[in-house]
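FIELD: query
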Amino acid sequence: MFVYTLRRIVTMIPIIFLVSVVVFFLAHLMPGDALTGKIDPLNANPEYIADMRSKLGLNDPIYQQYLHWIGGFLHGDFGQSFVHKMPVSDLILSRLPNTILLAVIAMFITYIVAFLMGKYAGRRPNTTGDYGVQIINYLALAMPSFVAALLLIYFVSFQLGWLPATGSIGSGVSPGSWEYIVSKVQHAILPSLCLGLLPIASYTQFLRNDMIESAQKDYVRTARAKGTSERKIYNKHILRNSVIPIVTLLGFDLAGIIGGSVIIETIFTYPGVGQLFVDSINNRDYTVVMGITMLLTVMTLLGNLIADILYALVDPRIRLD
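FIELD: result
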């Protein structure tokens, strides 16, 4: 396991390097530059603009600009945000807890709901309840996340008033208090539910189909022939084997949910990394865009590694070394 993990980490290095090259050059192909977000070129003195471009290194050859940026990135310096007037690393860290909370709640909802629905449908195939679960799954798979977000905002927030629709914390709440924690969770439930909607449908259907298939295998027939109760057969033999592939998807979910939060956080005006990414693109704050893109890249690679490691841990038949 250690050798495999070390080998995978080593293979991440050239991938991160290639992504950094693509991200850097794509950012420089976009209209404007870092100076655009720092001053108003229409009203500033041309000499001042030229001096600022020289100080920012914008007149250097493109490869020198890349080496300067990637060197700072390796030392934890993502550059300076010209819109927020602060280091990019500090800016991302200030928004990251909100996005992590969103991801944790989304994964919790996803796995609990998918497990309960998949288990119910898998034990009762081709019944009214099974058909009802499948209808819900197909609707969830066909519905885009932004449509689900708008529906939840309208019905749950505006019509019923159960949960807030925007922001990450209520007004007048003292940080560190119990009301603060409750408010943070309440503001994260609706966007988390939208993030987990598609995985819930996928995992429910996957677990249901796998349980039905496993119920026809020889070891299940043998257990029934020995007089083992149906409850023990489903819980010990069928469900335990069927849930293994879903557990291994945890690593992929970690990266996928954080990446998918870009749209959801924008709709709910939730101050996380996703909304910061969209705002930075609109404001041409390219250092922030590059920093967040690299963060998502690293999270995706780590998610894939975690998924492979979990697969080996939950399934003793797999030996990665």
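FIELD: remark
The chain has a mean pLDDT of 80.
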